[in-house]
Structures are given as C-alpha cells and as structure tokens.
Amino acid sequence: MQFKTTQQILDTLCGRDHPDSFGPPIEGIPDFDPEKHSDGCSGGMSASYARLPRWVHDKFGETLPWRHCCVEHDKAYYYGGTRDDKLAADEALKDCVATTLEDENAGLLLGLAMQMAVTIGGQPYFATAYRWGYGEDFRGTEDLPSGRE
Questions:
Q1: CA nearest neighbour of 89 among 127, 119, 64, 110
Q2: Which of 19, 43, 107, 126 is most open to solvent, judged by the fewest CB atoms within 10 Å of its CB?
Q3: Which DSSP state fits 20?
Q4: Of residues 107, 106, 147, 101, the one with CA closest to residue 128
Q5: Contacts of 69 (CB under 8 A, 6+ apart)
Q6: Distance CA 16, CA 125 (A)
C-alpha cells in the first residue's frame, strides 16, 4: 500500500488550482525586515521563552538560541515561491535548529517537530499570517498585519 504524503493530502483537500497556491516568489513588496516581518519562532515559542525566569535567560540568552533559524525561515516564507522552495525552507529550518542546539538528539528532535509543524501549518492555502507567501499581506504597507504580533 502506497501512503500519500502530507503535501499530497493537502493538495487533494485544497485543490491544486487554489488561487493562493504555490507560484514564483512574490515581487513588489517591501524588503524583508526582521523587526517588522518576523515574530521570531511562531507558535508561541518566542513569546513563551520571553516569559521564562531570569535564570534561564542568564544561562541561554535573551532570545531562543535557535531564533535566527526561525527568522531565516520567516524570510523564506515572506517571499514565498514554489513547492520545492517551501520544502527546502522547512528542511533548512530543521537542519539549523538541529545544529544550533548542543545536544544532538534534542536538536534533531526539536528540528523535526518544528519542520512537521511548518510543513503542515504553513501552507499557502490557509488564511494565516504565517503562511507561505505571507509577504503579500504587506503590499502597500510597512505595518505588521493583525494576527502576526
């Protein structure tokens, strides 16, 4: 029995001709600015880390040690592109997190979990502020769209 990939299931559910489907990178939008166009690590990860006790920040730093991985991933998501571009960005996120953490097993486990979450949750078909190609929301503005704060 041949199982379908997550991407194949989503394509089936949403239809390949969906107007928000994959395409070339988005043009005519402001250049990516991490301060305006990224929330660090989504899913409450950065926000939760910010609320941890002082000793955690003293030991590991003011932001998540792998936050730079998330910002680079956000940059790829901001501009969007082809399905292969998205899969490459999700793979790069996993690899970056895995190599950033000192504990190899924990890094790989967290990286894989984050890759699975963004592969499923970051589809261009979903009307979310963190979907693939979300830079389109900034056309004609520099402000952060609601829901991305």
A1: 119
A2: 19
A3: T
A4: 147
A5: 41, 93, 96, 97, 100
A6: 10
pLDDT tens sequence across 7-51? 666 555 555 444 445 778 888 888 999 998 998 998 888 889 889
> What would you measure as the largest C-alpha separation in the chain, in angstroms?
52
Q: Which amino acid is at 12?
A: T
Q: Would you say 143 and 35 are in contact if contact means Cβ atoms under 8 Å apart?
A: no
Q: What is the pTM (predicted TM-score) of this model?
A: 0.78
38 token code pair: 């990224």
pLDDT digits (tens, 9 = 90+) for 49-86: 889 999 988 888 898 999 999 999 999 999 999 888 99
Do residues 134 and 121 touch, judged by C-beta distance below 8 A? no
